[in-house]
Structure formats: C-alpha cells, structure tokens
Amino acid sequence: MNKQLLQNDVQDFIRKNLKSDLSKLILKGSPFPDVSIQEIAAQIAGLKTAEKKLPTWFQTPGILFPPRLNLEQTSSEITAKYKASLVSGEKLIDITGGFGVDTFHFSKKAEKVQYCEINQELTEISGHNFEVLGADNINTHHTDGLQYLKTSSENFDWIFADPARRDEHGGKVFRLSDCQPDIPANLKLLFERSENILIKTSPLLDLSAGIEELESVAKIHIVAVENEVKELLWLLPKTPSEEVKVKTINFQKKGNQEFEAVLSTNTAEIEFSFPEKYLYEPNAAIMKSGSFAALAEVTGTKKLHINSHLFTSEQIKNFPGRCFEIIDTVEFSRKHLKKSFGGKKANITTRNFPESVAEIRNKLKIKDGGKDYLFFTTNLNEEKIVLLCRKV
C-alpha cells in the first residue's frame, strides 16, 4: 500500500480524472514522483466501480481501493447490509475479510469484530479504510482465519466466511470443499468457537449440494439485485435443524420482493391450469430456490405446466416477480405471428419452448421493445402457445 496515494493533490487528481479514458491517461505518465500512473489508474478504476456498488466508500474521502479482481469479488453495499441484518451479539469474526465491505457492515451490528485476511495488501488497505470510515470496533489481523481460530481461545456469537471460489491455478470451483478455506472439513472447529455460522457462496452453487456438504443448514437466503442473483447465504446453527427454510429477496428500485418457505422440491400438490386472466413470471431468486409448490400455495396461483415455471390466476395476486394481464392466447403459428408482429416491436420470453428468443426474432422479424410482451410456452395439452400480454 503506497501511502503517498493519500496526499491531497493525488486524491484531487484521482477525483478529477474519474471520467477520463484510463488508457490515454496512462500514456501521459504520472505527474507525481512518488506515485506511479498504474497506481493512480487502479484507484480511478476502483472509484468508478464504487460509485454504484459501494456508495459509502465512493463518497468518503481518503479511501483506498485494491486491485480490480479483489473489488469484483467483494459484496455490494446493498448485499452487505442485508448480511449484517442477519447477525447480532457482542462478538463476530470474519475469517475471510477481503476488502472488508461485509466486515464494516457487521461492525454496525456486533460490538467487537475481528477481521482476518491472508493477503497482506488487502489487510493494510482494509485496516486503513476502517479507520477512515470510523469503524473503531474492528481489529484487523494479517493471518489465515482458520489458524486464528485454532490458536485463539476466544468464542464468538457469529463466524462469517466467504470462501474463495478459485483453485491454485486461478480456475473457478463450485463445490464448497474445493474452495479456500474448506468450510465442510472445518465445521467441527467453527462450531467449537461459535453457536452460529454464516457462509456466503456463489449463486451458482447447487442448493442440494450445499445442504449435503454443510450438514447443519437451517436457512438459505437467496439474494438478488434487480432480478440478478448475486449470492447465497447459508445459516448454520450448532444444533441441527429438522427442516431447511429458504428466503428469497430481490432488491429493486420500486420496492423489494420477499418470499419465504420450507425448502422442498415436491410438486405433487401444485394446481395446474390453462391461462386465465393474469400471468406471473417468478423473479430470479425464486427460480433459484425452486420453491414452486410453496409459491403457488402462498400466492393463490396455478402453474401453466410442470416445466414452464409460469403462473396464472383469474384475480390479480401479490406475486414476487413480474405480473401481466393476458390480452390473448393463440396457438403458435409462424405465419399468423409474422403477419401480426412482423416488423413491429415486442418483448419476447420463452419458457418450456423449443426455440430461443433469438431464433424467434430472426424467423418472425420481431424487433425488441414496445409495450407488448409475448410469452412462448407450452400448455397442459403439450401444445405450443403464445400469450400476448401487457404489464400490470
């Protein structure tokens, strides 16, 4: 960490060049003898990323940013705040501290927080930022988090871990036992130091695989932002739970969508129907959960087909996803659709349909956009149909 980056004139230069073309700026070289242009460019790039992802870091003068990869892997502020809402108590330890975004927000909920990070540069940068942000209840440690737990006699109300999802060659891994640290192999140690464990994983991790590896899962939080699943959060109490609950949340500008149910893949009790007056498309967090039976029961909707994951009702319902009024239901016919929509605009979605959106647009010459929504899907009679809809 080059502390010369904190000089007022360097900080002013970084802020003034926020909108500059970095490749052109690098060619000009650094105007400061103790700071390289590459270091300046890295800070400008970090500041650009933080503007939307980490507004507190962006708005606070004197913040330093890590290399790009570390910043890409860190939580956004909106998801970090959500994680922090799940914990409480006197003491918490983050054994995979990283850039410290989660750690900082945990410090708002726990009285004392220990931050452990094996990367020395990240530890120094995060420690500096904690001071700038006024988080004086965080102690930083340049050490392996598991080793810290092994050598310390301290117990915690919560242990948090965000295992690195890359192997020693930089390739991505998805099983928890292949991540660093290996959480499944160290659960005994973690539960010796805490009654509660919170783990963040990639949204690509299969839920059943995670439950099998972690053994003691009580609840899974599926967190999406603007309908894109960002992370899975696993709550593990020391006393095993008889059932696993799943909570989905989709953060949106127009209001958050939340849903909670006991995790189950049982579809026996789902009611099916031909399209009624309204059509519903579950948000991405619901889709990840696979809780379609519980969703239908709680919302009072019916499923169009066991493989379509579209729902319908005669009366409008409060539903965690997009809601449409069905204007017309027609049998799939290229000739009819090309005549009705060829050259016009429509938003196209396919669910349980043999052709992709790109193929449909190309064959039917339908442009993207407009107020009309076309859902290409399959009904209960295994017939290919198209639902012409308008957003509610």
From TrEMBL:
Record keywords, A-Z: Methyltransferase, Transferase
Residues annotated as domain THUMP-like: 321-391
Name of the protein described by the UniProt record: Class I SAM-dependent methyltransferase
The keyword Cytoplasm belongs to this UniProt entry's keyword annotation: no
Domain PG-1098 ferredoxin-like: 278-320
BP terms from Gene Ontology: methylation
GO molecular function, one term: methyltransferase activity
Gene3D superfamilies per UniProt: Methyltransferase PG1098, N-terminal domain (1.10.10.1110), Vaccinia Virus protein VP39 (3.40.50.150)
UniProt cross-references to Pfam families, sorted A to Z: PG_1098_Fer, Thump_like
CDD domains given in the database record: AdoMet_MTases
